[in-house]
Specification:
The chain has 371 residues and is mostly beta strands. The chain has 2 helices and 18 strands. It starts with a helix and ends in a 6-residue tail after the last strand.
Amino acid sequence: MFSCRSFLLLLLNVCSLTAPSLALPFEQRGFWDFAMDGEVGDLMTVMMRDEEGSAVEELPPDVSSCPFGCHCQLNVVQCSDLSLTVVPKEIPRDTKLLDLQNNRITELKENDFKGLTNLYALSLVNNKISKVHPRTFAPLLHLKKLYFSHNLLTVVPKNLPPSLVELRIHDNRIKKVAEGTFSGLGSMNCIEMGGNPIQNSGFEPGAFKGLKLNYLRISESKLTGIPKDFPDSLHELHLDNNQIQAIELEDLSRYKHLYRLGLGFNHIRMIENGSLSYVPNLRELHLENNRLTRVPMGLPDMKYLQVVYLHSNNISRVDVNDFCPQRYGMKKSFYNGISLYGNLVNYWEVQPATFRCVGDRLAIQFGNYKK
């Protein structure tokens, strides 16, 4: 059983985690990837004394009601990697973090989490869950983080807790998101559901109605275009590794608040002129590994754009005004990253003035075309 000192070190590592990676989907490598937000202070207060020079206070684990084989300490119940086929009984009622990942659970029943009203985070990653009772999550009045990835779900579970802030449900078998699936989830901030075999037609109108999301990732799916019914509150939208073929004029008209847009590893050949004008606050644009033959039009008008990934396309020409406005002072933020390597164009064919609004020449990633 791990000590409180070990727990504190792990928790501090959690506190230092950065925002979700832009290039790769979220991957929970361990239970401690849970970010506790405001709860961190409460748990650290329990573990540490206020007096100067005091050590971490060792508290005995509550083994009286701990499920067999699990570790129970400081409101944390860790039952991972035990080959469990059902949710264990006798989980302490004061549990805040429950780790059930890497087991063989196939079904969640109505009373599996009965009495766990204080639960903050639940990990069910890497099980074999294909069935969830409609009232499974009813007792979880304060649940904020639900990690449900790498299971066998074909639909998003019904009646998710209204308190939920973060849902990770990627790498399942979801093909359809019905109207009202996320109704009543006004606190939801982040959804990651990539790695599901869902097509554009799989999103019914109103599927995301009522959500005020900041972050949405649907990568490694079967989308052929940018869906137009996602929440208009989005700051980050990641649709990389799909089958998107073009960005049409009004595809982005709903997403005026976007800061980051990930469209790498698609089949995009055409970006219609004017389509990027709908995202004036964009900071990062990822279009790497597509089939573009030219730099997208409209980049010089994007005052806050700082990062553009265009590597591994079929771009054969870069003009002097492709990235920067012609008038000085029009751009509010200089570029700190432009990638153009792996294209047909050679760096010596591009005029130096093309990158006049780049903060540092090292921010330009260029190279010869690799056959």
